[in-house]
Write a structure and sequence with these properties.
Strand content of chain A: under 5%
Number of domains of chain A: 1
Oligomer: heterodimer
Number of strands of chain A: 0
Distance between the termini of chain B: 37 Å
Largest sheet of chain B: 6 strands, mixed
Structural class of chain B: alpha+beta
Strand order of the largest sheet of chain B: 6-7-8-3-9-10
CATH superfamily of chain A: MetI-like
CATH architecture of chain A: Orthogonal Bundle
CATH class of chain A: Mainly Alpha
Radius of gyration of chain A: 22 Å
Number of strands of chain B: 20
Mean pLDDT of chain A: 87
Number of helices of chain B: 8
Low-confidence stretches of chain B: none
Shape of chain B: elongated
Largest interface: A-B, 21 and 31 residues
Low-confidence stretches of chain A: none
Strand content of chain B: 35-45%
Largest sheet of chain A: none
Chain lengths: 278, 346
C-alpha cells in the first residue's frame, strides 16, 4: 500500500482544476485539428494527402527520423554509459553540452548549420568547391534534427544507469566476460525499457520538429519539405483542410507514440520496477 | 605463500587510500581485512580483483604477477555487499554466467553447465529457486546466489566485500557459519572484508586490521584480540573502558591504585584500557580502584554495573551471579582490573 495524504475538500478541487486545464490546453486544440481536417468528410480529408507534395513530405519526415533517431540512440547510449559508469575530468561539461539543445531555441539549432555550412558560412565556400551541399538538402535537415533531439535518449538513460551503478559490470568482468559481452549481456538488458522510452520520445520530436528544420530547409516542395513545414505552407495558402489533414497525421504519430509507451508501461510494470529496485 | 602483497599503495586524487601495505596469505587460508570505513580495506580487495589499479607495489598469487593480469583473466570469485546479481537473469542463468561467457573452446557443454549449476545451488541450499529472479529473493538468498555464481568459475581465490553488510543480524550470523563451512569444503583461499570485528574474529584464520590506509596489526583472532598493538585497535576490537594513569619504576598508578605495571608498558603518562568484563567487583577496601556504584542493570547473562571513579564514568560487565553482597546504587565498590592494557597517553 502506498501511503496516502488525505486532503478533504482540497483534493477533488485540485483534480478538477488539473482536468479542466488539460481539457482546455490539450484536448480541445487536438480535437480542433481533427474536426477541421474532417470538415469536408472523409473524401475531403484524404484528398490533400494524395497530393505528391504531401507524399514527399511524409516520406522525407520518415527518412529524416529513420536516420537521426538511430544515430541519437547510439550517441545517447555512449554518452550515458561514459557519464554513469566512469569518472573523468570534464564530466559536468559533457552533461551541460548534452542539455544544451533543451535550453536553446530550435531556431538557433538550425541557424548554426547555416552559419557553418551555408553559402556565406565558415565552410560554405570550401564545400561549394567540393560540390557538397548541406543547407537546403536532406543532409541539413538530418543535422538540424539530430542537434535538436540529441538529449532525449541520453537524458532518459543517465539517471537509471547512475542508480544501477557499476557492480554488475564489475561482477561480469571478474567472472571472465569481456567488455562487449558485458555490455550486451548485462548493461543493455538493464536499460532496455528506458532506452525504448528515449527512442520513442526522440522519434516523436524528430518527426514533429519545426523551428530548426525550417531554417535549413529552404521549403522546396517535394524536396526539402517535411510534414510540419508542409502544414505551414498549406496554412499560409489558406488551404485549411489540407493543413489540418497533414497536421492530423502528425498528431496521430504523437498519439500512437503515447499509446505504445503507456501500453508498455502497463504490460511490463512489474519487470520495470524490478529493474529499478532490484 | 600463495598470495603475497608487497608495499601496495593507492591514492584517489590527493586522498591516500592505501599506504605501503604488505600482507601474505597461505593457500586455503581464510583472511579477514578488518577496519572502519575509509580504512582502505575495500580498495585493497578491488586491487586484488583487478577492478582498481595499484599506484605502486606488487601482488603475486601462486608465483604469478597478479597486477599484470586483467581482471577477467584472474579467475577470482568476487562477492559484493549489494549482491550485484544480474537482475534480468534467473538464478540459474546468474550462476551459469561465468561458464557461458567462456570462449567456445573452453566452454563446457550445456548439459555440463546445467549440472554444475544444480550442484552449486545444492551447495548453497537454493535447489528450488533456479527459475526465480533476484528481485523475488530475500537478501540472504541473493547473497547465496552471488556466492554460487562466484564459485561456478572454480575461482583460484574468493574475494568477499562486506558480503553480509546489508543483512539483518540474525541472517548474518547464520550465513557466517555457513560461509566458513563452504570455505572448509572447497578449500579456496578467501579474503573477506568487513568492518564488524565480531564477524572477523569469529570467521577468519587470521585478521588483518587496517586504519587510514595502513596495515596496523595482523595475526590469528585470539592473538589480535588479546594483544592489540595500539589503543585504536583495542578500542576497535570490542567494548572497552579507558582511564588515565601513569607508569614509573615498574609500577602502574591509576585512580589512586598502585599495581605492578604490565610487561613492556610505556613510561610516563598512559591510557589504561580494559574490557568491561575483565574486572573483578570486590567489597570496598580491597586492593583495586575505589569506585561508587551509580546503577545496576541485571538482565541476561551479564550484570551491567555503571560505576563512577572521580569524574570518570565506567560501564562494567559482571557475572549474573556472585556479585559482592550489598552491591547497590550509591554504595562504594572496588574495581580490580584483571588484564589492563597500557598505551602511551593519546
Amino acid at each position: 500500500m502506498k501511503p496516502r495524504i488525505e486532503l478533504p475538500g482540497l483534493a477533488p478541487l485540485l483534480v478538477l482544476l488539473a482536468t479542466a486545464s488539460m481539457a482546455l490546453l490539450i484536448v480541445m486544440p487536438l480535437g480542433m485539428v481533427f474536426a477541421e481536417a474532417f470538415r469536408n468528410g472523409i473524401a475531403g480529408y484524404l484528398e490533400p494527402l494524395r497530393e505528391p507534395d504531401a507524399w514527399a513530405a511524409i516520406r522525407l519526415t520518415l527518412l529524416v527520423a529513420a536516420i537521426s533517431v538511430p544515430l541519437n540512440a547510439v550517441f545517447g547510449i555512449a554518452a550515458a554509459w561514459s557519464i554513469a559508469k566512469f569518472e573523468f575530468k570534464g564530466k559536468s561539461i559533457l552533461l551541460a553540452l548534452i542539455d544544451l539543445p533543451f535550453s536553446i531555441s530550435p531556431v538557433i539549432s538550425g541557424l548554426v548549420w547555416v552559419l557553418l555550412f551555408g553559402a556565406q558560412g565558415w565552410f560554405g565556400p570550401m564545400l561549394e568547391e567540393a560540390g557538397i551541399k548541406v543547407i537546403f538538402t536532406t543532409t541539413g535537415l538530418v543535422l538540424a534534427t539530430i542537434l535538436v533531439t540529441l538529449p532525449f535518449v541520453a537524458r532518459e538513460l543517465i539517471p537509471l544507469m547512475q542508480e544501477q551503478g557499476t557492480d554488475e559490470e564489475a561482477a561480469a568482468i571478474t567472472l571472465g566476460a569481456g567488455g562487449l559481452t558485458t555490455f550486451f549481456l548485462v548493461t543493455l538488458p538493464n536499460i532496455r525499457w528506458a532506452l525504448l522510452y528515449g527512442v520513442l520520445l526522440c522519434n516523436a520530436r524528430a518527426m514533429g520538429e519545426f523551428g530548426a528544420v525550417s531554417v535549413v530547409s529552404g521549403h522546396i516542395r517535394g524536396l526539402t519539405n517535411t510534414l510540419p513545414l508542409h502544414v505551414e505552407i498549406l496554412y499560409n495558402e489558406y488551404d485549411f483542410v489540407g493543413a489540418f489533414a497533414a497536421a492530423s497525421l502528425l498528431a496521430t504519430l504523437g498519439l500512437v507514440t503515447l499509446i505504445v509507451k503507456t501500453g508498455l508501461e502497463l504490460r511490463y510494470a512489474g519487470e520495470m520496477r524490478a529493474m529499478r529496485r532490484h | 605463500m600463495s598470495l603475497s602483497i608487497k608495499s601496495v599503495a593507492k591514492a584517489f586524487g590527493r586522498y591516500p587510500a592505501l599506504r605501503n601495505v604488505s600482507l601474505e596469505a597461505r593457500q586455503g587460508e581464510f583472511l579477514a581485512l578488518l577496519g572502519p570505513s575509509g580504512s582502505g580495506k575495500t580498495t585493497l580487495l578491488r586491487i586484488l580483483a583487478g577492478l582498481d589499479q595499484a599506484d605502486a607495489g606488487e601482488v603475486t598469487f601462486q608465483g604469478e604477477d597478479f597486477l599484470a593480469l586483467p581482471a577477467r583473466e584472474r579467475r577470482v570469485g568476487m562477492v559484493f555487499q549489494h549482491y550485484a546479481l544480474f537482475r534480468h537473469m534467473t538464478v540459474a542463468r546468474n550462476v551459469a554466467f561465468g561458464l557461458s561467457v567462456r570462449p567456445r573452446r573452453q566452454r563446457p557443454s550445456n548439459a555440463e553447465i546445467d549440472k554444475r549449476v544444480a550442484d552449486l545451488l545444492r551447495l548453497v541450499q537454493l535447489e528450488g529457486l533456479a527459475d526465480r529472479y533476484p528481485a523475488q529473493l530475500s537478501g540472504g538468498q541473493r547473497q547465496r546466489v552471488a556466492l554460487a555464481r562466484a564459485l561456478a568459475i572454480e575461482p583460484r581465490m574468493l574475494l568477499l566485500d562486506e558480503p553480509f553488510g546489508a543483512l539483518d543480524a540474525k541472517v548474518r550470523r547464520e550465513l557466517r557459519h555457513w560461509l566458513r563451512r563452504i570455505h572448509d569444503e572447497t578449500g579456496v583461499t578467501t579474503v573477506f572484508v568487513t568492518h564488524d570485528q565480531e564477524e572477523a574474529l569469529d570467521l577468519a584464520d587470521r585478521v588483518a586490521i587496517l586504519s587510514e590506509g595502513e596495515l596496523v596489526q595482523v595475526g590469528p583472532p585470539q592473538e589480535v584480540y588479546e594483544n592489540p598493538r595500539t589503543a585504536f585497535i583495542f578500542d576497535f576490537l570490542g567494548a572497552s573502558c579507558r582511564m588515565p594513569g601513569e607508569v614509573a619504576g615498574g609500577r602502574l598508578r591509576v585512580a589512586g591504585w598502585d599495581a605492578e605495571a604490565p610487561a613492556g608498558a610505556p613510561q610516563g603518562r598512559v591510557d589504561v584500557f580494559f574490557r568491561p568484563h575483565e574486572v573483578a567487583l570486590l567489597p570496598p577496601g580491597e586492593d583495586g580502584v575505589a569506585a561508587t556504584v551509580r546503577s545496576i542493570f541485571a538482565a541476561g547473562p551479564l550484570t551491567r554495573v555503571d560505576c563512577a571513579v572521580g569524574d570518570e564514568h565506567l560501564e562494567i560487565h559482571g557475572p549474573a551471579h556472585g556479585l559482592p553482597e550489598g552491591l547497590a546504587a550509591g554504595q562504594p565498590v572496588t574495581l580490580k582490573l584483571l588484564r589492563p592494557s597500557v598505551y602511551p597517553a593519546g
